[in-house]
Specification:
By secondary structure, this protein is an alpha/beta fold. Among the domains are: 255 residues, Rossmann fold; 91 residues; 27 residues. Helix content is 48%, strand content 7%. The chain contains 22 helices and 11 strands. It has a 7-stranded parallel beta sheet, with helices on both faces. The longest helix is centred in the C-terminal third of the chain and has 27 residues. About 1% of the residues have low confidence. The site of one zinc ion has 7 residues, from loops. The site of one zinc ion (ZN) has 7 residues, from loops.
Length: 610
């Protein structure tokens, strides 16, 4: 018996040492897992992963230019759209009644989103390929590095820590929520193995915050795998835009808003007004019914089956939306109900991380109104795409354009503020950070648009500093990164204005002009190398530098020709005189008015005179 045990022991030892050697060989990092900085895994936002359309043989579908076709957000084939819509559109126009137009438009929606369609189990059925990077950025091709850095410019981080300590978890934004959470958990285990580190840092961005909700709910043990979580504009309680989508609470169903306001919030006013003028070729009821039917198809047939999109539905909207849309889709509802719990528990699960010693940071944007697509657009402060209480883990704020009031006193409702004498209200009194879950580690950027977050070099350098060093513990660690900061985009200053200004030959300039130029250059350089800004300061710095260059005769400001706002004038004239009527209705009204005029002002007096 003893002999048997010792044989087993010997065999076990032999195998485990083989296993040790094998796993030692798998470690790919230079540090072998023995440096102070954990590898970082980026969990990107919606549309920040490439998903390509394939043909029936599994080859990439190519467009007319020979480029691969992206499935995000949909694949629009203009020829087939025209073929489908032309005849019903003409008939509808001639008859001024919806003759097949709505149903043709629904077909177009179905076709365009076919690549992103999911079955009754919430699994994608499209012929697609998700471009994944199952290795560190060090092993990525130049093309792959371009894709990654273009979405999240962490080149400085990679330079400081090494590309073998940076990973990008790509996923299908319209894929299966539960599968993607599982993949992320496995990815974290893979990164640990490959790098030799026993822990990682994770960076959930935007929709990535929703994926992280699932991770912390379904895999609570993952807290032992993580040193830092650096959330960037995370959709922790979805976006009210998606809540309005799932409850079909659209602003453009109101024709008054459709003809005067809606398009102007989404595009250039003159372009929007042109579309308004064209849209009047249809009577307003026909237009309204066409829009309702397209939106209905999009929600009922496409969005309802996409569990990743359900991950962006705020918890306040989910019960109503799921009851209406998923009553006959039990398999999908089972999955979205499970995620709903993850969303309800989001704060609790983040608190569990904090209590386990995980350092959780949050970087959010505010004071940019939401796109006015859903009627809830002005229910909370926002960053253009996500409402602020979602990204900020519940912070109280004033609506866009308003304040909490001059006498507002911070509420201190979070137990994570380390010192009740902290001031967590911004100087404009818009946000009370003491009411969010993590007052001491949440950084706010005023006026920063969600979609331009990666272009704010302060946000990127803050994330880099948190990930690459242990300098930053909270918003008080350094005056370089205060709790409240501003939006900016310094690309023009760095790449165009400063280099041009520095190249100016100043020998022939008057001392005053040369002095003004030198000062403007110096101020601009200090500004771009600094990390504190007020909202939009980059534009003031640009202007000062341009003015100095103009005085030096080295720059001419091109006068932008003010185009005549023709369509704006016409559209407003139509709206003010005829409301939301289509042209046929306007003409009919005009005709009736004309007949009335003839009868009452011409015929009747004539008859009276006779
Ligand atoms: Zn290392
Ligand atoms: Zn505090």
């Amino acid at each position: 018996m003893k002999k048997l045990i010792s044989i087993i022991l010997v065999i076990t030892l032999a195998f485990s040492s083989v296993a040790l050697i094998a796993s030692a060989e798998e470690v790919k990092t230079e540090c072998g897992g023995n440096c102070d900085i954990c590898p970082a895994i980026v969990v990107p936002g919606i549309g920040q992963s490439n998903v390509w359309a394939l043909d029936e043989n599994g080859d990439y579908l190519l467009d007319a230019d020979g480029d691969r076709i992206s499935c995000f957000p949909a694949v629009f084939d203009v020829t087939s759209i025209v073929m489908k819509v032309l005849a019903p559109a003409l008939l509808t126009l001639v008859m001024q009644k919806d003759i097949g137009l709505s149903s043709a438009l629904c077909d177009v929606v179905r076709d365009a989103f076919a690549v992103n369609a999911c079955d009754e189990k919430g699994k994608n059925t499209g012929n697609i390929e998700v471009e994944k990077y199952l290795y560190s950025v060090a092993e990525c091709s130049e093309y792959e590095k371009d894709q990654i850095y273009d979405n999240v410019p962490l080149q400085d981080y990679a330079e400081q820590v090494g590309e073998d300590h940076l990973y990008y978890f790509a996923y299908n934004s319209f894929g299966n929520n539960s599968d993607i959470v599982d993949e992320l958990y496995d990815y974290i285990q893979m990164v640990k193995k490959e790098t030799g580190h026993d822990k990682v840092n994770i960076v959930p961005i935007s929709m990535g915050g929703s994926v992280a909700n699932g991770l912390f709910e379904y895999y609570p043990e993952v807290k032992d795998d993580i040193v830092k979580v650096v959330y960037i504009v995370p959709a922790l309680n979805g976006s009210t835009i998606v809540g309005d989508l799932y409850t079909k609470n659209f602003t453009f169903f109101d024709t008054e808003f459709l003809y005067n306001g809606f398009l102007e919030t989404l595009m250039d006013e003159e372009e929007g007004r042109m579309i308004e003028v064209i849209a009047r070729i249809l009577p307003d009821e026909v237009l309204e019914s066409a829009l309702q039917s397209v939106a209905g198809c999009l929600v009922d047939e496409v969005a309802a089956n996409i569990t990743m999109l359900w991950g962006l539905c705020p918890k306040e909207y989910y019960p109503e939306a799921s009851a209406a849309l998923l009553a006959d889709k039990p398999e999908i509802k089972k999955q979205t109900d499970k995620f709903y719990q993850a969303q309800l528990n989001s704060d609790k699960n983040i608190q569990a991380l904090v209590d386990n010693g995980v350092e959780v940071f949050n970087i959010v944007d505010y004071n940019v109104p939401l796109y006015q697509i859903g009627n809830s657009w002005n229910n909370d402060n926002a960053d253009g795409v996500i409402h602020l209480s979602s990204t900020s883990m519940g912070a109280k704020s004033a609506l866009y354009g308003e304040t909490l009031g001059a006498d507002y006193k911070q509420a201190n409702t979070s137990k994570n503020c380390s010192d009740p004498t902290h001031n967590h209200v911004d100087e404009d009194k818009i946000v009370d950070a003491s009411t969010g879950l993590l007052p001491d580690t949440t950084f706010y950027f005023k006026g920063q648009n969600h979609e331009q977050t990666a272009r704010n070099d302060i946000i990127i350098s803050l994330a880099t500093r948190i990930l690459a060093t242990d300098d930053i513990k909270d918003v008080y660690s350094t005056p370089d990164y205060p709790q409240f900061n501003g939006n900016r985009d310094t690309r023009a200053l760095k790449n165009k204005y400063i280099p041009t200004a520095k190249a100016i030959d100043t020998t022939s300039l008057s001392p005053e002009v040369a002095e003004e130029l030198a000062t403007a250059i110096e101020e601009a350089e200090i500004y771009v190398n600094g990390t504190v800004t007020y909202s939009g300061q980059h534009l003031d710095v640009e202007k000062k530098l341009i003015d100095a260059m103009v005085k030096a005769g080295a720059w001419t400001v091109e006068e932008e020709e003010e185009a005549m706002p023709i369509f704006s004038t016409i559209s407003l004239l139509l709206y003010n005189n005829f409301g939301t009527d289509g042209y046929s209705e306007i003409v009919a009204d005009f005709y009736i008015g004309f007949v009335n005029f003839i009868v009452s002002d011409v015929v009747k007096p004539l008859l009276g005179a006779l």
